[in-house]
Amino acid sequence: MRLDKYLKVSRIIKRRTVANEACDAGRVIVNGKVARASYDVKVNDIIELQLGVRAVKAKVVSVNEYAKKDEAAMMYEILEEK
Fold first, then answer.
1. pLDDT of residue 51
2. Parallel, antiparallel, or unpaired: how do β-strands 76-81 and 54-60 relate?
3. Could you list the residue range(s) of the whole structural domain that residue 38 is in?
4. What is the distance in angstroms between the CA of the first residue and the CA of the last residue of the chain?
5. What is the CATH number of the domain that holds 58?
6. SS3 of residue 25 by DSSP
7. Strand 46-51, strand 28-30: pairing
8. Within 10 Å of residue 23's Cβ, how many Cβ atoms?
9. Which of 24, 30, 35, 44 is the most exposed place for a label (fewest CB within 10 A)?
């Protein structure tokens, strides 16, 4: 699954266009490298986001094409949040 779509489905970022813009601006890092929106997300990837003053580091637990609101939080595990 594409990185921008994963961020939207997992509800880390609310809109896919915002996720796409964050990737284009270089604010999304996957496994220590700046990632493009087209990056193919895999289980155990480490995603780091810098959104304004909020910084989040999360580990991908599962990759689902669709997730209900209560299931979305189970797609990742927060490692750090600042």
1. 86
2. antiparallel
3. 3-81
4. 27
5. 3.10.290.10
6. coil
7. antiparallel
8. 24
9. 44
pLDDT value at 2 more than 90: yes
* Span 11-49, pLDDT tens digits: 999 999 999 999 999 999 999 999 999 999 999 999 999
Concatenated DSSP letters of 32-72 = TEE--TT-B--TT-EEEEEETTEEEEEEE----S---HHHH
Nearest Cα to Cα of residue 12 among 55, 45, 43, 44 = 55
Mean pLDDT of all residues belonging to the chain: 94
Tokens of 45: 């990837």
Q: Which amino acid is at 29?
A: I
Torsion of CA 13, 19, 21, 27, to 10 degrees: 80
Number of domains composing the chain: 1
